[in-house]
Amino acid sequence: MAVKPRRSLLFVPASNTRALEKARGLSSDGVIIDLEDAVAPGVKDAARAQAEQALRQGFGGRETALRINAPDTQWFEADLALAARVAPDAVAIPKVYSPQTIRDIAARLDSLGAPAKVRLWAMIETARGVLNADAIASTASEPANRLDLFIVGANDLARETGVRPGPARASLIPWLQSVVLAARASGLAVIDSVYNDFRNADGFAAECTQGRDFGFDGKSLIHPAQIDAANAAFGPTAEEIAEAQAMIATFSAPENASKGAVAFEGRMIEELHVAIAQRTLDLAHAIAAIHDNKNAG
Ligand SMILES: CC(C)(COP(=O)(O)OP(=O)(O)OC[C@H]1O[C@@H](n2cnc3c(N)ncnc32)[C@H](O)[C@@H]1OP(=O)(O)O)[C@@H](O)C(=O)NCCC(=O)NCCSC(=O)C[C@H](O)C(=O)O
Ligand SMILES: [Mg+2]
């Protein structure tokens, strides 16, 4: 399957005209237009109209998602109808706590005529959502599936549970790791939570490194100042690319043709390490492709 770069997914409030415009020229791998918490109740309809215009204009070929309001809200039907009409790459669903929500929304998108390319992204940001993460992720193996990705929502998790994340998010670590594990067991992508303190560059960089170490594909963002650090943390470095190329060349050298385990720069490599190296190269190519496309557009 093609690798999709999701190092940086920038939330943009659909009610903020200037931010919608600005997002078009930024270097995030993707844009999530938000109709939910970043939009005040009194301006939901106007925000939906702006979201429609922005999605129709597009974001230079980069991945776009529309975060809709939850199914138990008065705005859900109109939000979902918009998603079916404009067909973003994904519909991000907040506060998913049950696999049935994914099935129901996939079925509704089918009945509204949304093309199959419109995927579902589930925000895992409630206690029940974390507990049910495996069951929610498992819907990805069902025939009518549209689910591709999880995003952790640490703000809502903290609100509901009363947890204080603390230094290096120590209190959240078991939940973050169980969400990553559930996603991977079903072959889903998984994106780390936003970092609210957007003027704190050092804190943000540290949290990106931690998220990368935990296995996240990228980070959800709230401010343009966070894009470069997320892209750096979750993308392959020039050294990693060179090493991946050298590893693949070593493993496929004629003298190693009959070997399952090969020595490379003083350590053992096997087919699985070559697969990781190939993924690094595929990610690097995919990053170059989407950003070349953006610059051309
Ligand atoms: C956090 C903000 C409210 C800060 O706004 P502000 O103080 O106005 O920022 P700046 O003055 O520093 O902005 C500088 C320029 O950048 C543009 N900008 C700011 N944010 C964005 C953005 N997200 N996308 C695109 N462009 C942006 C400004 O327009 C300025 O442009 P210019 O005029 O050229 O100078 C604000 O950043 C913001 O609203 N961020 C997004 C908030 C959001 O979407 N929240 C919802 C997602 S987070 C979430 O839901 C968490 C999750 O669910 C959970 O539970 O954890
Ligand atoms: Mg939330």
UniProtKB/TrEMBL annotation:
Biological classification of the source: Bacteria, Pseudomonadati, Pseudomonadota, Alphaproteobacteria, Hyphomicrobiales
Keyword Metal-binding set for record: yes
Protein known as: Citrate lyase subunit beta/citryl-CoA lyase
Cofactors, names only: Mg(2+)
Keyword ATP-binding appears in the UniProt entry: no
HpcH/HpaI aldolase/citrate lyase domain: residues covered: 7-224
Binding sites annotated in the UniProt record for Mg(2+): 125, 156
E.C. no: 4.1.3.34
Keywords annotated in UniProt: Lyase, Magnesium, Metal-binding
GO BP term (any one): regulation of cobalamin metabolic process
InterPro entries: Aldolase/citrate-lyase_domain, Citramalyl-CoA_lyase, Citrate_lyase_beta/mcl1/mcl2, Pyrv/PenolPyrv_kinase-like_dom, Pyrv_kinase-like_dom_sf
Binding-site residues, substrate: 67, 125
One Pfam family linked to the record: HpcH_HpaI
